[in-house]
Design goal:
By secondary structure, this protein is mainly alpha-helical. It has five helices and four strands. The chain has helices at residues 19-32, 45-52, 56-69, 87-101, 106-117, and strands spanning 2-3, 10-11, 72-74, 80-82. The chain has a two-stranded antiparallel sheet with strand order 1-2. Helix 1 crosses helix 3 and helix 2 (45-52) packs across helix 3. The chain is globular and about 45 Å long. Residues 1-5 have low confidence and may be disordered.
């Protein structure tokens, strides 16, 4: 296991969960619990990769994933920053974590969400 001095992310090198996913999970958890507040500048990909002992591309993939989810935003040369989550996003993150903690796979969770929306799709 390795720990980031910057973000307090602990990686389980023996886990079957990909490292970039563990990084995403760690950042999401810190945003959810308020450890990483809105506007917080994230470490550079190189700095976090070095702190975690992983490849720069692994951190870059995690940052891209988090950006797609709206958790962080890249501001070019200024860096990557935590975004202020809306109330709906916070609730959705808690719900998603609860489904994961309950042991559901992503496919099972997606099926439940599709069923909840019904045949009309998202509104």
């Amino acid at each position: 296991m390795s720990t980031s001095q910057d973000l307090g992310i602990v990686l389980d090198t023996g886990s079957t969960v990909p490292v970039f996913t563990q990084i995403c999970d760690g950042v999401r958890q810190h945003v959810e619990d308020g450890t990483l507040g809105a506007g917080t500048r994230m470490p550079t990909t190189r700095a976090l990769a070095q702190a975690l002992g992983v490849a720069v591309n692994t951190v870059a993939k995690a940052y891209r994933t988090l950006e797609e989810e709206g958790v962080v935003e890249g501001r070019g040369r200024l860096g990557t920053f935590v975004v202020e989550p809306g109330a709906g996003q916070r609730e959705a993150l808690r719900f998603a974590r609860a489904m994961k903690d309950a042991g559901l796979t992503l496919t099972q969770a997606q099926a439940l969400l599709r069923a909840a929306w019904g045949p009309a799709g998202p509104r």
